Amino acid sequence: MDIKSNAMDENNTARRTEDGSAQAAQTKIARRDFLKLAVAAGAAIAASRVPGLGIAGGGGTVTRYPLRIPPGASPSSFSLTAAPSTVDVGGGQLSSVLAYNNSFPGPTFRANTGDTASIQFTNGLSEATTVHWHGMVVPTAADGQPQNLISPGMSYSYQFPIMQRACLNWYHPHPHMETGKQVVLGLAGAFIINDAEEAALGLPSGMYEVPLIVRDANFNSSGNLVYNPTSSGFLAKNPMVNGTRNPKLDVDAALYRFRVLNGASARLFKLALSNGAPFTLIGNDGGLLESAISISQIEFSPGERLDLLVDFRGLPVGTKVNLQDVNSGWILLEFNVTRAITDNHAIPTSLSTITKLTNPVTTRLFTFDGMTRINGKEYDPNRIDFQVPFGQTELWRFSTGGNAPHPIHIHGASFQVRSRSGGRGKLFPWESGWKDTVLLKDKEAVEILIRFDGYRGRYLIHCHKLEHEDQGMMANFEVI
Ligand SMILES: [Cu+2]
């Protein structure tokens, strides 16, 4: 079945085909064949590449490269372009990628609650795309949904007020059946919102506040990023943080704030520090938790965010500490303490007040079936599966018959996780407060409370394992 012959392509007739690259060719094939393909971005520059870059993330003899910090940007009046680019992924190793404004990851937007985002987006790709502002509560027209494709060469103005509390959100493409490829080949960036409540805490800032977009990546023999998923998801061989392979970060003996995004397509990371020191967890997807908590391991799934304080004070200059992924055994990032300073930051304990959602009016059940369906149905961009009254608190219950993990993401509102039964059988500290993505593992049922009080309109619920999403584990609903 060639499911590209559906209405999706009505909006996407301008796809260029003269390119001849693997990437352009891939857009023309039947979608069901996508799992068989390895896609290299920009094979044209392969001849200039140095082969043999198969460097693993672990091991003690790996050469490490300075962590890239993406440029900052204000979203108040900004021109953003997605296009093929060539970037240094560490140590002068060039890779062709898809990038926002030639930056991999894209620029880090910073704004305050109450600001307005006005982002003039231009599609410089050879295929249609959208920009979804993951975690932002925005009108449907600005949500970058699969129905609102922007054809190659076309522009679109994303306009929305920033109404929500301080948090780390992010932006990435959301075209149906192409999201995994476009994200894995490089299109993602951070979007940080600040507010007065957070500012009053006096948390580490400037060079002491570091965004970390953690993901995995595969490279071909020419050193170019490739997308070669299997049907169960893209699990790659190399860790990558902020577009840097084998990264290191020189740190002062100070308190740091790391704004961490799981930007992988399918991989769960379980973070820990190599010296056994705990993280201080202060926030997640939807911003600050009520209270800080000291915790030594945190597992999070694609789309989820963590706000972590790491205390290097008291460590002698010359100390190395690794940020590790316990699941894979990878070293994600090596910290080198290079300077002793005086840092009098207090680690806050009380952070925020969060009003609990209560008394749900309606209960809805969602089963995540196989790798392609929600409640037995594959995504159809033209089908609205249910309607949700504006301003009404609802209980949504997620379960799965298998093929998890399914990181479940909802557009249009944040939610609160109420319970988990089966499987891990409990909630974790990083699941308190406000969330927009929650991890459902096999045999689990997860209940959330949600209330849409931002906008009426069409929104999405989907699995954020991008290969599941692209294969149809996604549904439209309408807030009325
Ligand atoms: Cu899934």
List its salient traits.
single chain, 480 residues, mainly beta, binds copper (II) ion
Provide a concise account of the structure shown:
By secondary structure, this protein is mostly beta strands. It has helices spanning 22-26, 179-184, 196-199, 466-470; strands spanning 39-40, 65-66, 72-73, 78-88, 94-100, 108-112, 116-123, 132-134, 155-161, 167-172, 189-194, 209-219, 225-227, 238-241, 244-245, 247-252, 255-262, 269-273, 279-284, 287-295, 298-300, 305-311, 320-325, 330-339, 362-369, 373-374, 384-388, 393-400, 406-410, 415-421, 437-440, 445-451, 457-463, 474-479. The chain contains four helices and 34 strands.
Gyration radius, rounded = 21 Å
Major sheet size, sense and barrel closure? 9 strands, mixed
Q: Give the structural class.
A: mainly beta
User: Would you identify the regions where 5 or more consecutive residues have pLDDT less than 50?
Assistant: 1-59
What's the overall average pLDDT, rounded? 89
Number of helices: 4
Number of strands: 34
Q: In words, what does this structure look like?
A:
With 480 residues, this protein is mainly beta. Helix content is 4%, strand content 41%. The protein has 4 helices and 34 strands. Strands 1, 12, 13, 14, 15, 17, 19, 20 and 22 form a 9-stranded mixed sheet that branches. Strands 2-16-24-23-18-21 form a 6-stranded mixed sheet, with no helix packed on it. A 5-stranded mixed sheet has the order 3-6-11-10-8. The longest helix has 6 residues, at 179-184. The protein is globular and about 60 Å long. Bound molecules: copper (II) ion. Copper (II) ion binds at residues 368, 406, 463, 465, 468, 473.
